[in-house]
Design a protein that fits this description.
This protein is α/β, with parallel strands linked by helices. The protein has a domain of 185 residues: Vaccinia Virus protein VP39 (Rossmann fold, 3-Layer(aba) Sandwich). Helices cover 32% and strands 25% of the residues. It contains 15 helices and 18 strands. Strands 5-4-3-6-7-9-8 form a seven-stranded mixed beta sheet, with helices on both faces. A seven-stranded mixed beta sheet has the order 14-13-12-15-16-18-17, with helices on both faces. The chain has a two-stranded antiparallel ribbon with strand order 1-2. Helix 14 crosses helix 15. The longest helix has 14 residues. The radius of gyration is 24 Å and the shape is globular.
């Protein structure tokens, strides 16, 4: 395997290292990361190639310096494998240098003496658990009877995390794996949760509900997130589950990271089903009722951007034969299109299984399920093709390369001359223009009603 190949295959969370725009991070100046005695300058802009070669050989890495961060700072390196397979090479992570904001955020987590059993929920191959357990070693003797458990949900993650724990056994203490079936209610003193935006908000809400169940009374959840991945809405969801009075922002800033703490002060476990609401929608001369769900996009009703997208593309909707609603949420675009054009075949797709379930319910209640099908992304039955109109209010926060992939696979199911209309907030204009141009060759502004959002149109 050529040097660096393992880098590009890093799991999503760790790929942040290479892509991080350090200039854009509102972190303390570089100099504040320098040691007092060691006067090594942290060259955060080390050339990527250089970095890739060095990180494969720990002896080539400069010594990590973190003295000024705080006394709890993790002055060590981690070895992280990015694949459970034995043949993949190890990758050395110089934490203070490569993930200063994550280290800075996790440093603010202070466990009480009697908080002994701590669960880590993150999808980073063990990284967050290793950082926390590594910091504990520095904090001994408190750490002796404290144990961290890294939550795993499938056998591949299990192998990878196991491999990473083993690779760092000299550096960390008391970190074990725990499977869903081994977790009992009311058994943890604290949970450190790093939501992964790609699973969808409704799934994240469900995770929060589960976390409240497994916490002891008085137990705490620390949520580590980033403003670019939707920190604001995760905070509102945490309020919904734990109660607004029990929330406390711990650290805000750090280049966009947010560390929010909530405590379990009551036994009320909201059933996710209870968080459904019914809303009435009126658009393009049609009025209908749908069910929405906490955590789904625009659960209060039709989003303004989506409304403008539908209104501005109405002629294309009326004449299309096969419409695709990409990222359907509770179904706003697909359902409206099917009602406005009573003969079109409509497919809807979303990555979030709670969105898919909700959209399916709505389609079925409205009696349009003969022509309208809802798929979850990756569903092998979703053999969609010959689409002549794609409509989307896309996930704005996703990384460019994932969006390019998403639109490239969408383009492949379209007929020649098929149209795509998308709505984007103006802050993301440049990003989506670039993405559409990359995939479709051009992107025209179809409608720009004001300062808030824009409708783009492309053609295959
Ligand atoms: C901005 S919301 C729009 C929801 C709905 N279409 C509306 O207008 O109300 C974007 C939706 O895209 C979904 N999504 C995110 N990544 C996706 C992916 N890779 N494939 C399909 N859907 C995705 C999200 O779960 C979310 O429901």
């Amino acid at each position: 395997m050529p040097a660096g190949e393992s880098i590009s295959k890093q799991p999503r969370r760790w790929s942040f290292n290479e892509d991080t725009d350090y200039e854009a991070l509102d972190l303390p100046k570089e100099s504040s990361y320098q040691g007092e005695e060691e006067n090594e300058v942290l060259d955060v802009k080390m050339r990527q190639e250089d970095m890739q070669n060095k990180r494969l050989d720990p002896d080539l890495l400069p010594k990590a310096v973190s003295k000024k961060l705080s006394k709890y700072s993790l002055n060590k390196r981690l070895v992280l494998y990015v694949s459970p397979n034995k043949e993949s090479r190890r990758v050395v992570i110089n934490l203070d240098k490569e993930l200063p904001a994550v280290v800075y955020a996790t440093e603010s987590i202070r466990f009480e003496k009697d908080q002994k059993k701590i669960l880590v929920v993150s999808d980073d191959g063990g990284g967050l658990g290793l950082i926390l357990a590594g910091m504990e070693v520095d904090n001994s003797p408190v750490s002796k009877d404290r144990n961290f458990y890294y939550f795993i949900d499938d056998s591949n993650t299990e192998k990878l995390v196991d491999r990473n724990i083993y690779a760092n056994e000299d550096t960390i203490l008391n970190l074990d794996l725990i499977k869903r079936k081994e977790i009992v209610p009311e058994s943890f003193d604290a949970v450190v949760f790093q939501p992964e935006s790609y699973v969808g908000k409704a799934t994240i809400l469900e995770q929060m509900v589960q976390i409240k169940k497994i916490l002891k009374m008085g137990g705490v959840i620390y949520m580590l997130t980033h403003k670019k991945s939707g920190a604001g809405s995760y905070q509102r969801m945490l309020e919904e589950v734990f109660g607004a009075d029990n929330l406390q922002p711990v650290k805000v800033g750090m280049g966009g990271y947010r560390l929010i703490k909530a405590s379990k002060e009551d036994q009320e476990i909201p059933e996710v089903a209870d968080l459904h609401t019914t809303v009435d929608v009126s658009i393009l001369g049609k009025t209908f009722s749908v069910e929405t769900l906490s955590g789904l996009f625009s659960k209060e009703g039709l989003d303004n951007g989506t409304r403008t997208l539908l209104e501005s593309a109405k002629d294309s909707i009326k004449s299309a034969k096969h419409i695709l609603d990409l990222g359907c949420g509770w179904g706003a675009i697909g359902i409206t299109s099917a009602l406005v054009n009573p003969v079109a075949k409509v497919d809807m797709i979303d990555i979030d299984h709670r969105a898919v379930e909700t959209a399916r319910k709505n389609v079925s209640k409205l009696g349009i399920n003969e022509r309208v099908t809802v798929y979850q992304t990756g569903d092998p039955r979703g053999n969609i093709r010959d689409v002549d109109l794609v409509l989307s209010n896309p996930p704005l926060h996703e990384k460019d390369n994932l969006l390019v992939e998403l639109f490239t696979s969408t383009r492949s199911v379209m007929l020649k001359n098929g149209e795509v209309f998308i709505v984007v907030e103006n802050a993301y204009l440049g990003k989506f223009k670039r993405i559409l141009k990359t995939v479709f060759g051009s992107a025209t502004i179809h409608f720009k009603p004001g300062n808030s959002f824009t409708i783009f149109r492309s053609r295959k």
